[in-house]
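Kindly inspect this one:
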Amino acid sequence: MNLSIRKWRIEDKSDLAFNLNNLKIMNNLRDGLPYPFTEQDAEDFIRTMLSSDKDSTFAFAITLDDKVIGSIGVFRQDNIHSRTAEMGYYIGEPYWGNGYMTNAIKQVCQYVFENTDIIRIFAEPFAHNTASCRALEKAGFKCEGILKSNAVKCGSIIDMKMYALVRA
C-alpha cells in the first residue's frame, strides 16, 4: 500500500465528505466545519484550498493507493511569525492505528522545509487527543508545553499542547 500526500482534486469530494462526516473526528478539530459534512461542503473546501495563496497555504489530501483517507495542511503565519506555520490534519477513522498520520506529517514537513523559507512548523492538538500527540512525537515534533484552558470545544474548557518541529 502506498501512502502519499498530493494536491486536492474536485473528484476527491466523496471521500472527503465520507471521512469528515464523523463526530469522533469533528470533535477533535477546530470549529468552523459544518456537520453533517456534505459533498457540496467538500467541494467548496477543495476549491478554496486549490485557489489559496500558494506561498502561504500548503494543503494536501492524504491518500492510500490514491484514495483520499484524510487531509493535512500547513498554513504560514504573518508579521514577525511569517517564517512559522501551523499544521492541521485528520485521518478517517477506518485508517486509525496504522501509522498513516505519522507518515503524512513527515511527508508534509519535508515538503514545506524543502520548498519554502519556513523554519518552524507547529501544531496544537487537544491535550486529551493522545493519538494526535503521539503521531506528532513519532514524526519528530517536540512538546513545548501545555496551554491550560486554551479552548472551548463542545461546551467544555480544554487544554491543548504546543508541539513544534524546527528546520535542521
